[in-house]
Amino acid sequence: MDFKKTKYGRFMNNRVPSDKRYQPTEYEHAANCATHAVWIIPSILGSSFLYFLSDDHWETIMAWIYGFGLSGLFTTSTVFHTVSWKKSHLRTVEQRVHMCDRIAIYFFIAASYAPWLNLRELGPWAWHMRWMVWIMACVGTLYIFLFHERYKIIEFIFYTAMAAVPALVILSMHDRDGLFELAIGGAFYSLGTVFFKSDGLIPFAHAIWHLFVAMGAGTHYYAIWRYLYTPGSGQVKTSR
């Protein structure tokens, strides 16, 4: 398919219809890869740090779950954008990796909530949300397998709903420490969606979205480290 260059030349191609996938320029491809690849090692190291700070088996389990979700997000994103950049004849592989990239987002959201839902004393709905968040991730995964790239607005709504619904339970925390950081991280993700939907309108829009994701994830990591794993933070484990 022939994409005419915009006035930004090598920095952005023309916008495409909603039922088509935007084709980044070479520079945008490189930026898309770099802006998430750079966080793979820090996410693994940060997750390992939480593991070594764990005081009991539940903190250890949550560190593993959160760590896999965090590092998995940056890794699958980087692999997808690399394959997409160098795909040549790998169109089927690109499709499969793209699906993995989308699925990783669902499980990253669930993994990001897991420490708060399991290591903090919450309101009466907390017990249900501990498993509901994973049910939502599985439903999202099924949706990807059945309708990948067919109804993009519905997929976007699914991601937004999954990110917002568990937050209502988090607000029931008796200990409010960390709530400000959680809100700031959520604001980064929300602002980033403006760029997520701006390919062909703003040069490097997707790479900018990646940076907002990194800032949101970094803020939430800080909150988990500071208020759930730092010695003397005073977290209260939920009863089981």
TrEMBL record:
Similarity remark: Belongs to the ADIPOR family.
Cell location: Endomembrane system
Keyword annotations of the record: Membrane, Metal-binding, Transmembrane, Transmembrane helix, Zinc
Sample GO molecular function, one term: metal ion binding
Keyword Repeat recorded: no
Major subcellular location class: membrane
Domain of life from the UniProt record: Eukaryota
Name the UniProt record assigns to this protein: Monocyte to macrophage differentiation factor 2
Transmembrane segments: 30-52, 64-83, 103-119, 125-146, 153-173, 208-228
Residues annotated to bind Zn(2+): 81, 206, 210
One GO CC term, this protein: membrane
UniProt membrane topology term: Multi-pass membrane protein
